Amino acid sequence: MPNVTNYANANRGPGVTSADRTPSRGPAYLGTSHLSRHRARRAQPSGQPWLGLAGLAYVIPFGVLFAVVLGGPERTTLVLGPITTAATPAIATIVLWWEDWPGTSLRAGWSGLTDTLLIAAAAVVLTGFTQVVVNGWDLRGVFLATPGPGHAVTYPVTMALAGTALSAMLQLTFVTEGWPLRGRRRLSRVWAGLIAFGIAWVVALAAWALVVSPGPIGDVSLQTYGMWLIILGAWQVVLFAVLPGRPFTLIRNRAARLITANVAIVVLTEITYALMRGLGVENSVIGAIGGVVVGAGLVMAVLFDGWPGTRIGGVTGDIVMLAITAALAAALYGVLAAVGSGLHLGRVSMTGWITLASLNWVGMVVLLHAAVWSRWPVIAQPASSTPEPAALDPGRDDHLAAELSVPDHGTRS
Questions:
Q1: For residue 321, which of 294, 291, 301 has the smallest C-alpha distance?
Q2: How far apart are CA 240 and CA 246, in angstroms?
Q3: Domain ranges across the chain
Q4: Which of 90, 203, 310, 398 has CB 3.0 to 4.6 Å from 122, enough for a Cys bridge?
């Protein structure tokens, strides 16, 4: 899949005019087609791999800065780890549903800053909210690495709840293709995003209350629950970012496609986690492995726009992307392990630091640079694409055809 900032537009199909693609104007999901619309011909990124390499020149220093900004890796992890994790559902809302609104409604140069400030404010509020749910409100525990006796800390206890909200958001956005929120004529992108955000947190709270020990229908430990979520996130990124939804896009019937995709990704997560545990891999190592897969997948899918898979195309391109992502994940694990072995960590384990560094200091910074800040200050040329003619899609059903024939309302506020 090309850069996630263009997910909604890339998923609209050829029946939508250029006016409707302007993010700061009309409804974002009017006439949105389903994931099966963009199967064979993805957008060809312009300027890759140099554009991605130039982005790394900014991502790496900022990732390092995020890791030590509060006076050291452990102190930063204890404070910023929960806050940046709580920021991820807000980032997903702004990038995937609001198409960088409200920043896009402002003058150029203010967009990234405005969205970043909004994300930062949401991160603090959501961290406080997760703290209230998990162990009660305590402001010192939000902003201090060592708040003192009798004060509730946020690392790592609040991170699983925020991670559940992010997983639910990604499941709704990619695996469920935004259904039933996308394609609603009277539902603007702002309201669609807010509803998706609310659904994600309702799911997160329900899962937390029902499953996490002690739960009425489950007795899963907090660590096991968190590591399972990271494996789920890894599969979400691999199947719907590194690969553009294949093989599920081969299923033309929407109901069958959505059911199959949702069931398959949960089953794959459960099998992967059970297999790794059966092989004797510790929970913390499972989290670190899943974290580097997510980080590497976002680098390839977002920073490099799916290159070189988009250039090669087809099954061969997908195999190449999987191989490069796996190699990059292994390299990322090795680099972070080498760095972590030299750190003076106490309350944070080295594998825990690797997990957070790959997810937040790599993955989140990639999203901020490429999606929220539109790669600024790197100058990116627009990607060229060859839309797939509607006539070449014999599997399109009448409902989808009706969606694509919706008149252009891109200039309506």
A1: 301
A2: 8
A3: 4-373
A4: 90
| Phi, then psi, of 280 in degrees rounded to 5 | 90, 15
pTM: 0.82
| Residue whose structure tokens are 């080295």 | 350
Q: How confident is the model over 76-107, as pLDDT tens digits? A: 999 999 999 999 999 999 999 999 899 888 87
Rounded (10°) CA dihedral 344, 362, 172, 120: 80
Q: Read off the tokens for 6.
A: 């263009």
* SS3 at position 44: strand
Strand partners, 387: none
3-state helix, strand, coil in the chain (%, to 5): 65, 0, 35
CA atoms of 301 and 39, how far apart (whole Å): 16
**pLDDT on residue 150:** 86
C-beta of residue 2 within 8 angstroms of C-beta of residue 10: yes
Q: String of b and e for 246-270 (b: at least 16 CB within 10 Å)?
A: bebbebeebeebbebbeeebeebbe
What is the rounded distance in angstroms from the CA atom of residue 103 to the CA atom of residue 90? 14
3-state secondary structure of 270: helix
